[in-house]
C-alpha cells in the first residue's frame, strides 16, 4: 500500500451498476456487464459523465462456493509492476480493460473468483481489479474477510469452503481522490476502514452482495457507521436481486457521505445509481466535528492486542 500523500480531493461523479442477469453463462455475464458499463458511461440527464464506474461483487459468476473454482480466472497481477493486458489469461480482465478504454473512465471491476496460478495447487480468492481510463490494470484487492456465517433457519454461507482470504489492504489514487478497496463482508471489520482513512482515503468502495436476512438490518447501517466513524465517503455496489438464483442479493447500492447521510441509493432491480462525491462535505464534517484530530492514541495503545 502506497504511503505517498493522497491526491487533492476534487468533486467526482460515481456510477454504481446494480447489475442484473448474472447467470451460469459467463460469456453472457461479461457481455451484459460491458453493455451496462458503456451505458453508465453516457451518464443520465441529471448528471455529468461518470469519472468512476463500479460493478458488484461476483459479477461474472453465480455467487456460491461451489461455483468459484469453475468460474475462476488466473490474473497474475503484481502490485507496482506493469501488467500486459494483451497477455492476460483472464477474459474478465480483458473485458474490463477494453470497457475502461472505450468509456474513458476509471472502473472498479466488481469482483470475480480468482485462481492464484494455473497450477493444480492453486488457491482461490474473491478479487476486485481496478482500471484507469486508458485501460491499465492499476490495483487489485482480494477479499480479506471471508463470508462464513450461520444464522439458523435463515442463512448459512461458507466462502472458506473454496476460497482463501486475501492478505493485504489496498487503495489506489486517481486524479480526484484516494480510494480504499474492500469487498462486501470486509465492511463488518472497522479496522480496515479506519486504516484506509488514516492512510488518506477519501472514500472506501465495496462491491458487495448482502442477502435478504442481513441486508435489511445491516447494509445501510454498516455503511453509515463506517462513514461517520472515519468521516469519509462509503459506497457499496450490489447485484440486482434475482429470486431464481441460488443466492438472493439485497440490492440497494448506495453512497453515504462523511456525515452519515445517504446521498443516493436504489431499490433491488437492475439500475445505475449516479452520485456526486463532494469534497466540501468531507471538509465540513471534519472541521465541525474534529474527531480526526482528537484521537487519544496514548490511551488506545494498551488495547491494541485485545
Ligand atoms: N458477500 C458477502 O460477503 C455477504 C456479506 C453479508 O451478507 C453480511 O451480512 O455481511
Automatic annotation (TrEMBL):
Gene Ontology CC terms, in alphabetical order: mitochondrion
The entry's keywords: Hydrolase
Stored SUPFAM superfamilies: Carbon-nitrogen hydrolase
InterPro entries reported in the protein's UniProt record: C-N_Hydrolase (IPR003010), C-N_Hydrolase_sf (IPR036526), Nit1/2_C-N_Hydrolase (IPR045254), UPF0012_CS (IPR001110)
GO biological process: asparagine metabolic process; glutamine metabolic process; oxaloacetate metabolic process
A molecular function GO annotation: omega-amidase activity
Membrane-spanning segments: none
Ranges of residues in domain CN hydrolase: 12-279
Keyword Hydrolase: yes
Family to which the UniProt record says this protein belongs: Belongs to the carbon-nitrogen hydrolase superfamily. NIT1/NIT2 family.
Protein known as: Carbon-nitrogen hydrolase
